[in-house]
Write a structure and sequence with these properties.
By secondary structure, the protein is an alpha/beta fold. It is built from ten helices and ten strands. Helix 3 runs antiparallel to helix 6 and helix 9 runs parallel beside helix 10. The chain starts with a helix and ends with a strand.
């Protein structure tokens, strides 16, 4: 992965070169609408406070758990015995981006949502709350982390979450066969190039023209940047939006010309 200095340099370059975050100069009506109605939506939705209270609890929790990493692993914590608050502080998606995911779901109303990488269930809670009539299938490799995520769902009284535990290589084939179609997927499971591209290929097999794929940490490492570039170049992909820490992928053929946007957020 990139070190803090390298990542900061990349972020500064992104910030200086990205399209204005208010939509000025963006000639795609779809992307302009996305900026206006989703990125710039500052409404304080009812679920925000409840989920953020749960985040605060986790960030204060001094309990110790054992964690087995199936993905690229934590860049901050290298031991298997980990303190819950340390995991929460290093791995939970910041409020700004977690709430953006809520607004994306709230706007597009996908019926079938998939999350690869549950962590403690904060991002999951935002995804599930965006459309309570949808089913969120969320996958977590580490069993003890999944148990804490389950506590999150129970505390927030989320009834539309199905938590799948275990190594993705073993759990995903059966899940994909079961759900048959995904409307929105958030991929935050294994920050390596080949697994990320494999998730992408597998998701395309159960996607339709309206499916939205969201990749986390697309600039986290050179491997992830290479994966992101291959996703963008795929013939099926018609539109991508780079927000630096996450990347959105659309495969809708109604977008007649392949377009890639980098937008300041």
């Amino acid at each position: 992965m990139y070190n803090h200095f390298q990542l900061a340099k990349k972020y500064i370059h992104y910030y200086l070169t990205a399209a204005n975050g208010k939509g000025h100069g963006v000639h795609s009506p779809f992307v302009f609408s996305f900026i206006k109605n989703i990125l710039l939506d500052n409404k304080q939705y009812d679920c925000y406070d409840k989920i953020e209270q749960r985040r605060k609890q986790l960030k204060r929790n001094t309990g110790l758990i054992e964690v087995v990493d199936f993905g690229a692993g934590s860049t901050v914590i290298k031991t298997r015995q980990r303190i819950i608050k340390d995991i929460a502080n290093s791995s939970l998606k910041p409020k700004k981006y977690a709430q953006l995911l809520y607004r994306i779901v709230n706007h597009f109303q996908p019926a079938s949502i998939l999350e690869l990488g549950t962590s403690f269930g904060i991002t999951s809670a935002y995804l599930a709350s965006g459309n309570q009539h949808a089913t969120l299938y969320t996958c977590e490799g580490a069993d003890n982390i999944a148990s804490i995520a389950n506590e999150t769902f129970n505390q927030l009284q989320l009834k539309n979450v199905e938590l799948i535990r275990g190594d993705f290589s073993k759990t995903l084939p059966a899940l994909f066969a079961k759900i048959k179609k995904v409307d929105l997927a958030f991929i935050d499971g294994n920050h390596r190039k080949e697994p990320t591209l494999q998730y992408f290929r597998d998701l395309l097999a159960i996607a339709d023209n309206n499916t939205i794929l969201i990749f986390d940490d697309i600039h986290w490492s050179s491997e992830m940047e290479e994966a992101w570039q291959e996703v963008q170049a795929n013939d099926t992909v018609t539109l991508t939006i780079d927000l630096f820490f996450i990347g959105l992928v659309f495969i809708n053929p109604d977008f007649k010309m392949k377009q890639h946007f980098t937008i300041r957020f």
